[in-house]
Structures are given as C-alpha cells and as structure tokens.
Amino acid sequence: MELTHQCLACGNALVGRSDKKFCDAYCKSSYHYKKSIDGQRGSFYNVVNNQLKKNRRILSYFNKAGKAVIRSSTMLERGFNPKFFTHYWRNGKGDIYFFVYEYGFLKRKEHGVEKYILIKWQDYMKL
Ligand SMILES: [Zn+2]
After folding, report:
1. Do both 107 and 54 map to the same domain?
2. From the CA of 37, how far away is ligand 1's center (Å)?
3. Residue 55 and residue 74: Cα distance in Å, rounded?
4. Is the dihedral of CA 108, 114, 117, 118 positive or negative?
5. 114 within domain boundaries
6. pLDDT of the chain, 127 residues: tens digit per residue
7. From the CA of 19, how far away is ligand 1's center (Å)?
8. Nearest in space to 107 (alpha carbons), one of 115, 96, 99
9. What is the Å distance from ligand 1's center to 30 Cα?
10. Domain, as residue range, for 57
11. What would the DSSP string read from start to end of 39-105?
12. CA 127 – CA 101 distance, rounded (Å)
C-alpha cells in the first residue's frame, strides 16, 4: 500500500515513499530558500535593524522642523522603542541625548507628563 502525503513546498499530494518530501528539485530548493529568508527575518541582527529603522521613521515623522517636543506615549504607541539607538551625545549641561542615526531624543518630565525632546544631529556635535 502506498502512503499519500504532501509536498512541503507546494502542498501537492505525493505518492510513494513516505520519506519523500517534495515533488521535485524545484520544490525542494524553493522550500529551503523560503526557510532561509524566514530565518533571517527572525535573526537578532534583523530584529535590531528593523527596530532601529522603525525608530528612525518615527523620529523623522515627529521632527520635521529639526526640533520638537512630543509626549513619549504618542511615540511609544507608534512602536518607538527607546532602548534601540545608535549612539549618544552629551550637551554642555550634561544631558545625554540618544540618537538613532541623525535623529536624537532626550526624555524629560514636564508637569508630570513624560516627553521626548527631539533634535537633529549637528556638525558641532562630536562623537
Ligand atoms: Zn511540490
């Protein structure tokens, strides 16, 4: 009696030995290609990269003028994660701004509301 099972790539029924997993070499290679892409997506490097990109997008959205003050909750709701940044800069007063590429942010409490002061990287800021 022959066992019927499915190709892992396309789902077509396979007839024959139960250890056969794919219709043909094409299905086999497309399955492994997709698996490697999925693996990359979930890798630590990509998780960090994607969050940095998202943070930068959110910072640039709220900081079109080069300087802005935004409620931190507004940014967090959009997926901003302050733990992910590329570098920091300390101003003359000792405040430490965290940067995501050219966009900087500093957490500040004003009248009991947590806000982010947003700035943009300037040439005089030295790394
Ligand atoms: Zn197949």
Report:
1. yes
2. 18
3. 13
4. positive
5. yes
6. 455 789 999 999 988 777 889 999 999 999 999 888 877 777 888 899 999 999 999 999 999 999 999 999 999 999 999 999 999 999 999 999 999 999 999 999 989 999 999 999 998 997 6
7. 14
8. 115
9. 9
10. 49-120
11. HHHTSHHHHHHHHHHHHHHHHHHH-SSSEEEEEHHHHHHTT--TT--SEEEE-TT--EEEEETTEEE
12. 12
Q: Which two tokens stand for residue 33?
A: 């290609």
Whether 28 and 60 map to the same domain: the answer is no
C-alpha 22 – ligand 1 centre gap (Å):
5
Total domains in the chain come to 2
Residue 24 Cα to ligand 1 midpoint, Å, equals 6
Judgement on whether residues 36 and 58 belong to the same structural domain of the protein: no
* 39 C-alpha to ligand 1 centroid (Å): 21
Determine the Cα–Cα distance for residues 73 and 113; give it in Å rounded to an integer.
9
Instruction: Give yes or no: residues 57 and 106 share one domain.
Output: yes
Residue with tokens 């080069």: 66
Answer yes or no: is 113 within a domain. yes
- d(CA 15, ligand 1 centre) in Å: 12
C-alpha 6 – ligand 1 centre gap (Å): 8
